User: What shape does this take?
Amino acid sequence: MMQQVNLYQPIFRRERKIFSAATMLQALVLFMLGLVAWYGFGEWRVQALHKDLTVMQGKAQELQKRVTALDQQIPLPTKDKALEAKYEGLLADIEAKRRGIALLAGGDFGSAGGFSSYLTALARQQVNGLWLNAISIDDGGKRLIIHGSTKKADAVPKYLQRLGKEAPFAGREFETLSMVRATGGQKGELLDYLTFDLDTVLPDEKKAQLPSEAQRLIESARSGGARQ
Assistant: This one.
């Protein structure tokens, strides 16, 4: 009787080893060498970066020293007091002009038309040989002062008569009239025209000092205005 024996059974096959101890040891050595090399490369890069940082810090310190030296050489800006005073003066001038415009446009001088109504009336009434030099309005329009010049003394009453026809001057009376010969030049020579001042207010202490000729002119102007 014949018996078959299976020689391919696992028990009879030779066992194959994937990694031997020597191979694993070699792999471990190679891994360690690679790790050491990577660490050495990283350390070298760190040292190189540290050197670059040190160089850059040195340059930064050098630049800071140069900036400090330049700051010491360049003087600090100082305030110009003259320029500040001029600036303040300009601001004050602008504010004064702004207030003047507001006064001209408003009715702060005793009439709805304000100061402009007086200027319009004075400009509308003209007498040959007479011109105005300055106009002052005080006390909220209660006091009016006119400074002018004329070639003839009798031109002033005519001018007052014409002003009496204007609405802003209706009911107003000039209490003071002073008239003198104009002077000029270095030696004060008499000129060929007169200067006059008209004022609607006459202080009590000056009433006794009013010249008779001036009083006559005022009365003449008043009577002439009444006849009109």
